[in-house]
Write a structure and sequence with these properties.
Largest sheet: 7 strands, mixed
Number of helices: 13
Distance between the termini: 47 Å
Radius of gyration: 22 Å
Structural class: alpha/beta
Length: about 425
């Protein structure tokens, strides 16, 4: 038993040290990166593509932010699932309200049965672009961007070695639901991982149109469940890099409950298993951050039942140091992200003592929820997203098995809950 306690204690402390080191690398990058923005005459004409199915909670604000960019030549291309989709009415009203002339709204004309609806929309939008567009920027409806978002996203593409630029989402730890807090805690490590592995995020992503054609990326989108994870390997084969732009960390204020979060995580884990270039590394990370702490808790409970008070107390002390250490890592990173966000005039929630206590409680809860999602994703072959079902047989063998237009009745009762 003593040997087991020593092994578990060393495992937890070693993993905590690794987490701290990786976080410090990420923070160093955030602090050392400088904005090198191109002047107006060097910025290429860009098409910003937004694919819509359902009315996301902050869709009007997303559209207004996209229509008011500090960028000389860009057009917003909206591909809406159907005319009867709730997003169509909201988008049309927002365009009229803004008196925007650089926007085009179109329905999804061909629902492909061998890729996701989003990939169908992306393929349609890109095929409709003329040769004057030199850059394609992708954005999601849960992204409320700042005024220089597009300029900061496109400027690094002036480097011939950069194939794509990206940002990432940053959830807020406040909210009504525990699912929102668990998603926040899990996303903290996800953001660091995606930076280290150069994994782009489809919610803020730019790629040169010539790169789309040269790499065959458009053809891959036409066969895939997701558009972003796959890009690392495809670009790497052509000697191109994915550049993470720190100023494009976007605050997300949407909410979710635990039930919907588990469904979302299962889709995310499935996409990771299919397309993530370092899937085995993610599995190893899951073992370290989920399995070991859970075993420690079970061992502590067993020793308490067997009245091994001293051994249980020592192991609990180690677990407490590990958990508090993770909390401190999150708080340090939260403060650093707040600094980045404030520089872009984005509002950020302040952390109260009650929220910090909930974050401490949420750490083991997050480990169990993510562990459940990972295990569930290993054997699922059918995935449903916003009422659309797909059968997944392999990364490039996706079949649409159930489709219907999105309706107002499909919207959640809570207007702030993610779709």
């Amino acid at each position: 038993m003593e040997d087991l306690a020593i092994f578990l204690s060393k495992s937890l402390m070693s993993w905590l040290v690794i987490q701290v080191c990786l976080t410090l690398v990420f923070i160093w990058y955030l602090r050392s990166s400088k904005k090198n923005l191109l002047p107006d005459d060097q910025l290429p004409k860009t098409a910003v593509i937004l694919c819509l199915r359902g009315a996301d909670p902050f869709l009007p604000r997303c559209l207004r932010s996209l229509l008011n960019q500090n960028y000389p030549q860009y057009d917003l291309k909206l591909i809406v699932d159907s005319h009867e989709d709730p997003a169509w009415k909201i988008a049309s009203e927002t365009i009229t309200e803004q008196e925007a002339t650089n926007v085009q709204i179109s329905p999804l004309r061909i629902v492909r049965n061998n890729c996701s609806l989003k990939c169908s929309s992306l393929v349609q939008a890109v095929h409709e672009l003329d040769d004057s567009y030199k850059v394609v920027a992708l954005v999601d409806a849960d992204t409320i961007v700042h005024v220089n978002w597009l300029r900061e996203l496109v400027s690094p593409l002036g480097d011939a070695k950069i194939g794509a630029t990206t940002g990432n989402r940053w959830y807020v730890p406040t909210g009504r639901y525990w699912g929102s807090l668990v998603r926040y805690i899990g996303n903290v490590s996800t953001v660091v991982q995606m930076f280290l592995f150069q994994i782009p995020w489809g919610g803020t992503l730019a790629v040169k149109t010539e790169v789309l054609r040269q790499t065959g990326l458009l053809d891959k989108w036409g066969q895939a469940l997701g558009e972003d994870f796959m890009m690392h390997n495809i670009l790497k084969k052509h000697g191109l890099q994915v550049k993470f732009v720190p100023s494009l960390l976007i605050v997300n204020r949407e909410e979710t409950d635990l039930f919907n979060l588990i469904d979302y995580l299962k889709r995310l884990m499935l996409c990771s298993r299919l397309y993530h270039p370092r899937w085995l590394a993610l599995v190893s990370e899951a073992v370290s951050s989920i399995l070991f702490p859970t075993i420690v808790i079970l061992v502590i409970l067993e020793w308490l039942l067997e009245a091994k008070w001293q051994a249980a107390t020592l192991l609990f002390g180690c677990y407490a140091v590990y958990t508090v250490g993770l909390l401190l890592v999150m708080l340090v990173l939260e403060l650093e992200i707040q600094r980045v966000v404030r520089s872009n005039d984005q509002p950020i929630a302040k952390l109260s003592a009650a929220t910090i206590i909930k974050m401490l409680i949420g750490i083991p809860l997050t480990q169990w929820v993510y562990g459940l999602a990972i295990l569930s994703s290993l054997w699922i072959s059918t995935v449903t997203w916003r009422g659309v079902s797909y059968r997944v047989q392999s990364p490039w063998n996706i079949r649409l098995i159930e489709y219907r237009p999105y309706q107002w009745l499909d919207q959640p009762i809570d207007s702030k809950v993610s779709l």
